Amino acid sequence: MPDPTPASPSPSSVQAEAPPSPIRKPPAGAEAPPPRPQAPPQAPPPRREVVDNTVLGIGLIALGYAVIAGADAAVKWAMPQVGPAMAMVWRGIFGALAILLLARGAPLRPVNGRLILWRSLLHCVVTIGFYIAWARAVPLADTYAVSAASPLLMTLLAIPLLGEVVGWRRWTSTALGFCGVLVMLQPGGALWRWEAGMMLAATGLMALTRIWTRILSRSDGAATIAFWLLLAHVPVGLLLLPAFPPLAWVPSPGVALALVGFGMANGVAHFLFARAFALAPVSVLAPFEYTTLVWGLLLGLLIWGDFPAGSTLAGAGIVVTAGLYNLHRERLRARAARREARA
């Protein structure tokens, strides 16, 4: 095969440099040669393509949250028979299997193994907190209403952990958001029960794991983070079996099918999230997290006949409004930072 690069001349073949030949001018009246065509400058990606990617990202993130809500409804329905610990085992086995299949041989070895370990274990604590609440018949929409405070807690945790600066507007909206939490958890209300306090603590830990996810995204891929998180549920669930033994060690066929689908759905949802965030800006996709409130309301009403109390809906509305305002302020800050970078 010939070498595509031109060969350099040997020293013996180099001759003395000939004097430059004079430039010949065209005779008078002759037509000047046409100018050489220049390559057109590369155009930026068309705006329509950017819009299409954003729309596709919105569709994927909305589908991902719908899948997660359906998976949560499935495990809540199966909870009386399997219990919280065994539900964690099922989630870990089939969720990690789904990630393994969807990764298609991509390496899942972590780079920041220590932080992935701590994040996975802490998320297991979050999981067991919500599973205990569902086992004690806390409605699905109520748990989503409490967990809606997670973005507000992330705003506070980002100050010491990520070095972010929070202005007075976001401080004010965050404080109003926590007033919404107090409305939901008011004495004598539907959520005035110890499980609500446990879910609020689990929501705080969930906010911390999401901050750690931002840090891990600098070194590890989404599939790696999700795989080890789900796999960690297996040993932790087995350790918790003495405290939460299942009603039946071998579930009925219907419950087993629901648990397999629940575990696989968790893996699929994580891939939908990763693909969505690769296509569209975070500031556009983040508000769709609150769609789980709608799904929780619909699924709870259809399956169990649950409907949140007025105080729960009012408090959740305040929390969601505060969270959306914080996202709006974050978008404005990002836009100002891009302008300064271009200046």
> What number of structural domains do the residues give?
1
- Rg calculated over all Cα atoms: 29 Å
Low-confidence stretches: 1-21
Strand content: under 5%
The biggest sheet, with number of strands, parallel, antiparallel or mixed sense and barrel status, is: none
Average pLDDT, all residues: 85
Distance between the termini: 51 Å
- Approximately how much helix is present in the residues? 55-70%
- Helix count equals 11
Q: What is the 3D shape?
A: globular
Number of β-strand runs: 0
Derived from helix and strand composition plus strand pairing, the structural class reads mainly alpha
Oligomeric nature of the chains: single chain
Provide tags for this entry.
mainly alpha
Can you offer a commentary on this structure?
The chain is mainly α. It has helices at residues 47-103, 113-135, 140-147, 150-162, 168-184, 194-216, 222-240, 253-279, 282-285, 291-303, 310-342. 38% of the residues are buried. The protein contains eleven helices and no strands. The chain has one domain (49-342).
